[in-house]
Amino acid sequence: MRKYMRILVTNDDGIFAEGIYKLAKHMQSNGEVIVVAPDSERSASGHAITMHSPLTVKKVNFFNTEIEAYSVNGTPADCVKIGVEVLCKTQKPDLVISGINNGPNLGTDVIYSGTVSAAVESAILDIPSIAVSMGSYESSQFDDAAQFISSILKKMIESSSLHNIIINVNYPAKPKSEIKGVKITTLGTRRYDNAFIERKDPWGNSYYWISGTVRDIKQDVESDIAAINKNYISITPIHFDLTHFKHFEELKKWDFHI
User: Fold this and answer.
1) Distance CA 69, CA 59 (A)
2) Using one digit for the tens of pLDDT, what is the confidence trace for 9-20?
3) In angstroms, rounded to a whole number, what is the distance separating the alpha carbons of residues 24 and 97?
């Protein structure tokens, strides 16, 4: 790992969230850090990018530190795009880290996650990336997770095969003494019992708030959800190629008529 590696840090909880501050602070021991993050919370924004309105970038005082930091009035994916292609144009980052998210990004929820989508955007740009989240919303501190990410950076940078792979890390919201170890995992399945709460505006028109509770369903023993439930750190390699290769071969056998 180069002594002066450049690390771009982003998130979806907003630039003044505690998780991104702790992550950026710990990453300083590994190289130069630049923070580019949304100006407010953009949770569950997925991989949306801003096409129909301008992006505003503002340099900010980042928790009274000397870390170079910018807020963007866009999505996490926007932040990575503009961070890599504009703010770091003369020296591209060696690594993008997204987080630390206040809550888990497990299983099929990674499709909705702004945290993971920022890391996916980095991988599309052929820059190694890590998405890191706490295993529950009951996180009392983020330092242990940040220290763990710092410990795996060297392996991440030295592995040339990982440049377009996203490493999705979920860290148990437990004291370090209660964490059993690390598991390399697959994505589990998250399903919800959704509820749509109807309200009326002053003109009598309906609008809805969506909420939901996670179903307790059986998970594969190698899944990220199973690992977190047993107090293991979960590391899942994921990729933006959504091709289902098994059915790719099956569809090639079909007889199409035009």
Assistant:
1) 6
2) 999 999 999 999
3) 9
For the cut 80, the answer to whether the pLDDT of residue 161 exceeds it is: no
The CA–CA distances, whole Å, from 124 to 12, 76, 80, 127 equal 18, 14, 11, 7
The length of the chain is 258
The answer to whether 113 and 150 are in contact (CB under 8 A) is no
232-238/166-171 β-pairing? antiparallel
pLDDT at 214 over 80: yes
CB 146 within 8 A of CB 109: no
**Structure tokens, 113:** 């996650």
What's the CA angle centered on 27, arms 64 and 103, to 5 degrees? 85
Instruction: Name the phi and psi angles at 71, rounded to 5.
Output: -100, 145
- Given a contact cutoff of 8 angstroms between Cβ atoms, the answer to whether 153 and 30 are in contact is yes
pLDDT of residue 118: 98
Backbone angles phi, psi at 85, to 5 degrees: -90, -15
101 phi and psi angles, rounded to 5 deg: -70, 140
Q: CA–CA separation, 139 vs 142, rounded Å?
A: 7
54: tokens are 């301008």
Rounded distance between C-alpha atoms, residue 56 and residue 78, angstroms = 11
- Asked whether residue 1 carries a pLDDT value surpassing 60, the answer given is no
Q: 3-class SS at 212? A: strand
Q: What is the mean pLDDT of the chain?
A: 93
pTM, 2 dp: 0.93
- Predicted confidence (pLDDT) per residue in 113-138, tens digit: 999 999 999 999 999 999 999 998 88
